[in-house]
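Quarterly update from the structural biology core.
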Amino acid sequence: MPDKPFDILIIGGGINGAGIARDAAGRGLRVALCEKDDLGAGTSSRSGKLIHGGLRYLEYYAFSLVRKALIEREVLLALAPHIVWPMRFVLPHSTIARPAWLVRLGLFLYDHLGGRKRLPGTRKINLHKELEGKPLKQGYKIAFEYSDCWVDDARLVVLNALDAYEKGAMIYPRTTCISAKREKDLWHVTLHDNQTSKTWIVRARALINAAGPWVNDILSGVVRMNTSRQIRLVKGSHFIVPKFWDGDHAYLIQNTDKRVIFVNPYLESLALIGTTDVPYEQTPEDAAMDADETAYLLDVLGQYFRNAPKAEDIISSYAGVRPLYDDHTQNPSAVTRDYMFDLDAPTNQPPLLSIFGGKITTFRKLALDVMDRLAPFFDDMGPAWTDRKPLPGGDMADGDFDRFISHAKRTYPFLPTALSKHYARLYGTRMTELLGKAKKIEDLGRHFGGMFYEAEARYLTQTEWAMTSEDILQRRTKHGLFLSDEECAAFISWFAGTLNKTA
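Predicted structure, tokenized:
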């Protein structure tokens, strides 16, 4: 374990912690990050999987947040064209929800607040004449179509951590922070490796608490410090069903309670439906979609779609606990999605910066703001840089994914089209590292079913800190959704008996 003090130790390996680690390491600082579970295993892999401005936040006059998020949408689309891509959203007009003039005004602001350059603007749709209206009930006549972006949230976390690691950061997944105390000008932090049961102490010039839903637990139980800032836990749940419409567009539908529900195409043949906003007071690890949330989403779908999914169509579900900054708003949907910092920096003592709130879209801007707050403590810190350098795998010519995948098909003609696209989407230009010298499909090793081959499992274990079968099947890939129970069991057995022993 390192003897030399780190400049920054980050507690929390979600999107904010990984984004900060990347930013700081790229500025020349010595960085370490610890995460008690797998990278992104909490809220950051259980989101709605969107990079968006948050159209509905305009209703709460959160213009600054929406503008910040829309600007970031453009930046991330350029930095990670393999895991972030444009998506068109169809918003059917409902006479019992918001009036048409209000929707038009909101979309006008949405088109112009963030300096939109790469994405097409809003258009009006006649639902009785165009494809987008085909799955909807007859009563819906017009809709508005606008742009946002899709993201593979779990991979966004891992790729930020990977870039941080390649810039010198130490990444410690499945490592719990047991205690942290100030001794003169350094933090002395006790870490526990949950895999090996080893415990050791690291020192750091600054400590960042990016623990998300556990931010107050770190303050009270690890650092033993009080704060006036608090978080408010709000559970958001989604379920996955077979896709039930033609086209690659998504739908944004409005309920009578003024909430909006996303109906998004997912992994070609599936649909991702969500989200809910439910106050949550239990431990975040135990969050799961409940029957009331399922019924709520199914009811809203039934109001709009001719052949809406039923409970028996649900393939899978998940729930994430959003650590929102508590602004004392009663309505969970209206609680701010912006972030706040609490900087504790007594004279001649090392600083502690705790993060409250935030959303996945603004993680890069949050990291910039964190570094600005810590700049007085690091005279040798380099300049901001993350708006210009692609994430690992995103260094495609002109950020053109379609051109890249055409090149990939020519380079690896033995790959079936769907498999080539799978590798391109998840790994971008780094699919060459995964494939190595493969010249035929048999070179990828054992086939576990679907599009899942041994070469990918080995790459993820050797390169991206995948330590369990769940890390691979659920987060770094979504193969688990497409394998049978028997195929999943076979991979789990192989992983435990073969790969996990040699990794």
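The chain has a mean pLDDT of 94.
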